[in-house]
Structure prediction request, 212 residues.
Amino acid sequence: MQAQPRSQTRAEEVYNRGIAKTRQEDYRGAIASFQQAATLFNQSGNLSNAYKSQALATYLQFTSERIQRTTPSNDPLPSWYVGGSCLGIPVCKYGVVFVNPGAERTNFGGVIILEEKLRMLNRPDGTGEPINAVLDVQIVPKLRRGEYFTSNCQMRGRRTQNLFAAIAQTTGYENADFYPARLAWRINLTGKKIESIPATNIQCENPCPGGC
Prediction:
């Protein structure tokens, strides 16, 4: 087995350090680690992990700024924040978000981020902001025409407690109740991982069958 280049090994160490810092609520340190990891991954030619690291740094910068506010922001979410879901017991113990900062300049479609809520930051006005740790991240490939990312999916003919995320195919299924999936992931809360699974039996809800 060929040994990994030193820059690749170093990049993974720095990346993992960034993940650990989110659990310590050290977002500034985590952002710096992910930015450094992105540089090291680029130097080793690992463009996918470089993008993943930079996307995490961008997302955490946004998260950090929200936490630092003394009042809730009325600003719209950035265009690269595509969507998210919360799940787990107690309610919203875990969160899944899909973001794609800078994806248009790359061969990637974005990243799925699985987070765990550590605590709530309560403001004097009664509002709050979750303090989260990053558990796992998966790269999503570039979306094709007529596709979109959604977490409103289920296993065909079976109800489970799992959350499924997928790249749904809409073209030709505009009048159907469900879209088929091209790629799918299962959110494994036991293992705290995002797992790639076969998309054959995954279907995603069409919010407007026949058009809205």
The chain has a mean pLDDT of 91. The beta strands are 81-87, 94-99, 108-122, 128-141, 147-155, 163-169, 178-188, 193-197, 202-205. DSSP finds three helices and nine strands in the chain.
